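Question thread 4412

I'm putting together a teaching handout and wanted feedback from people who do this every day. The idea is simple: show students a protein as raw sequence, then show them the structure tokens that encode its fold, then repeat with a second protein so they can compare. Below is the first pair exactly as I plan to print it.
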Amino acid sequence: MAVADRERWDARHTVAGAGAPAPPDALRGREHLLPAGGRALDVACGRGTVAAWLARRGFVVDAVDVSPVALAAGAALEPRVRWILADLDAGLPADCAGPYDLIVCQRFRDPRLYPAFTAVLAPGGMLVLTVLSEIDDEPGPFRAVPGELAAAFAGLDVVAHEEGDGAATLIAVTPPAAAPGSPPTPPDPS
């Protein structure tokens, strides 16, 4: 991300009001789907309202954003979160190697990160994504094409997938790891 982009986000977060801890958009009304706890990663966390919400539910949270202003606001909201300054255009930072029981990313889309999300998600872990979409809206470089999330995460078990009104949402889990000593799962013949 160019310095100008970081400065733009810093300016935006400087004038934003204080946020209150809140669940990710995709889990509102579906909080019962949330894993019992463990490690969580909030990607492009902004002012940290989701990261704080997760920490207050017992998760050990890593929250990543490009804006130091946003991260400072998040740290004031919830000091137990590990706030990580990183340019996601360069990929997930090395500090975020996982495994994570929960990964949340909302309102940030970079398909180059999709394989990294899968790579750091623990067996049985949950991925919660909400991105802008072309469905019922204009196409553009920051908008997902129809079916993008479902295709990108085809190896995960989909819990919910919705597209419409300019947004795409995916809630999916990795298949649980096989128990030690159990035979490997046979390949799908289809």
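The second pair follows. I'd like the answer to focus on this one:
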Amino acid sequence: MTIDSALGSVTIEEAPTRVATWGWSTQDAVLALGVVPVAMPLNEYGGNDKGVLPWDAEQIEKLGGETPQLFSGSDTGEVPFEEFVEAAPDVILAPYSGLTQKDYATLSKIAPVVAYPDEAWSLPWQDQLTIVAKALGKTAKVKALLSAVDTKIANLAEANPVIAGKSFVYVSALEADKLNIFRASDPRVDLLTQLGMEVSPNVSDLDADPSAGSYFYQLSYENLRKIDADLIVGYFDNQAAVDSFLADPLVAAMPAIQERRFAPVVGESFVMSSSAPTVLSIPWMLDQYVPQLAGAATNVQ
């Protein structure tokens, strides 16, 4: 199988038996296809006491596997090359990652590397699953996995019709006086559109540099009044972070906040599951996520 990427093409001669992953969520696709990686990123944020995300831990147990070697550097994006050497993989899967061309060249000396097809951090979860399945020689399993998640999404959308057609802006507040606005290409935004919601035209209207190549842009708090959407969706580590955000006078003055058209995603595991939605994380979190959106949508006049 030959797989092209933005960083180079790679040919995988036979089905890998020692799989290593890099990025936020590629291990989810690997595990969903029935393979336990020999190594994958450590997730201190949102993970259990071992640094494994809850839906991954459940799937590893289901497959009767053991916790893989866990790579450091997932929080900083710095690739731990020596740890990859130690893992001795047959293939390195990183289709949803921030690998640089230099990273790719160095990793390619260790094993064939499958990178992202276009831009870093912008691959929809469906395409991630398809690419990983090709690399593992398991394409026959993709259709059923996609269908199961699509059915889950469709059933929840049908059960919560109030969210249909509602416009939204997806945000995060990680710096003082600056709001991150996620572009339409981001997977967390794409998940909401799958539920029948619509990205507010305001997202592109406020984007000063659409060609910047990032999945988000920043808006200063002094410009928050320019945001126009039915719902404001945002993620926060904990309730204290939500309270701090809402306590800012410029945030509190936003019509969406005043009218309770605000749907925060709260808690590290839920932030991870919604920020990098996958074939495993979507079913894990969606039952809680959609009713929260519906609750906020009922306040849209």
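Top answer:
Good format. For the second protein you could add a caption like this: DSSP finds 13 helices and 13 strands in the chain. Residues 142-159 form the longest helix (18 residues).
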